[in-house]
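fwd from M.: "can u put these together and see what the complex looks like"

so here's what she sent:
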Amino acid sequence: MKREIIITNDGSKTIHIPEWNEQYHSIHGAIQEAKHVYIKHGLAFFLASEMYSKASEVSILEIGFGTGLNAFLTAIEAEKLNVNCNYVGVEGFPVTKAEIEALNYSEVLKNRDLFKAIHNTLWEEKTNVSKRFQLKKEEKQFSKIQTINTFDVIYFDAFGPRVQPELWIESIFKIMYDALKSKGVLVTYCAQGDARRAMMAVGFTVSKVEGPPGKRHMLRAIKG
Ligand SMILES: C[S@@+](CC[C@H](N)C(=O)[O-])C[C@H]1O[C@@H](n2cnc3c(N)ncnc32)[C@H](O)[C@@H]1O
């Protein structure tokens, strides 16, 4: 499918898929959305929980590694907060080198080396990207994930149910539920009712949380 780079309202770029009229991030602001949904309501929420106070590190699974923006923001936070982070990014259709070079996240966030290091890691290999941030990029379909009781946080960043309804159903959320540790947290920008009901059907306790600018709500689901 054709992909093109566009600029969003906070000045950060994203990828647009004309055929679907769908973007990798919100057109209201890619960095703004990622910080709100995944860093504030995912990572920071977990770090403030009693689950984290018992652990010394956080393990994160990203559903849809895409441009690497969520990984980049998480790596910056891990260094800033001195938190050890094990991050697995799953992606079925990796972006190209040319696309990575056309994005402006390292300029906007003023950290060229870390973004480059994230993209320079080899697929399928666990790599220490920085002192606090370990990354493994896995090229595979979401439906093939088989990890059990492993992650504290899941960033569920698939394309929306309008274009990929098959990713917002019980069988996929069961895979996510199984991959999380008890009391683990799944966050997503999506607030759709059918998606929320599918999460609840597999056992998640789901809350509607204030969405990023331009969106009323998002969802946060807790295991068990
Ligand atoms: C919304 S984008 C992810 C954006 C990404 N988190 C970022 O920060 O750039 C959704 C991603 O899911 C990937 N994808 C779509 N369907 C998939 C599938 N069935 N299995 C694995 N990856 C898939 C797409 O290629 C795309 O990169």
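replying to her w this: The pocket of S-adenosylmethionine is lined by residues 24, 64, 66-67, 69-70, 91-93, 141-142, 157-159, 164 (CB under 6 Å).
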